[in-house]
Structures are given as C-alpha cells and as structure tokens.
What does this fold into?
Amino acid sequence: MESYEMLIGHKEDLDEVRLIQVLLELDDAYFNGEELVDDDKYDELKRYAEITFPDNGYFKAVGSTVRGAEIKHANPVGGLNQIHEGELQKSWLTKHRKKQARLRKN
It folds into this structure.
C-alpha cells in the first residue's frame, strides 16, 4: 500500500478521481481524530487539487461523515456557511434565540 506522504510527493501522477479520494481519506481520518500527514503536506495536496481541478464537487463540501451518534448542542453551533449580515442574519438570530429559549425551559 502506498503511503500518503509518497502519494503527495507524486501528486502530479494522480488522476482527478484518485487525488480526490486521497483528500477524502485524509479528511475522514483528520475529522475523526487521526492525523495521517502533516498539515503542510495536506495543504500542499489540497492547493494542488484545487488549482488542477477547481470544479470538482469536493471543494463545495465541508467536513466529513460523522461516526457514531450526532451530538445535540445546547447552543447553536455555526458552521462555515454562517450568515454574517443584513436581514438573513436577523432571521437566523431570531430563529435560534427562540430555539435556545425552548431548550432552557426543558
């Protein structure tokens, strides 16, 4: 089996499918507590993939699949797609303040 370090070192030889597969494997391991390569090596591979295959759907996704049960947070936990301004922000805040008030009553 090829090591991830070796694959990153020969990233130009990987086709789009294999390159994205490697990124997904690294993401899954990282988001579930296992770091398979240095951050610098991962960033190098991801930058190369984004430059080489900018339209790949991988670059629109966030995070990794969840292993086990999802955790219900008492307070809303914002993600990378947070709303930052204007009416959308106000409606988001209103919605989550109501939800938070309901949680406090329980």
About this structure: The helical segments are 4-9, 16-31, 39-52, 86-105. The chain is about 55% helix and 0% strand.
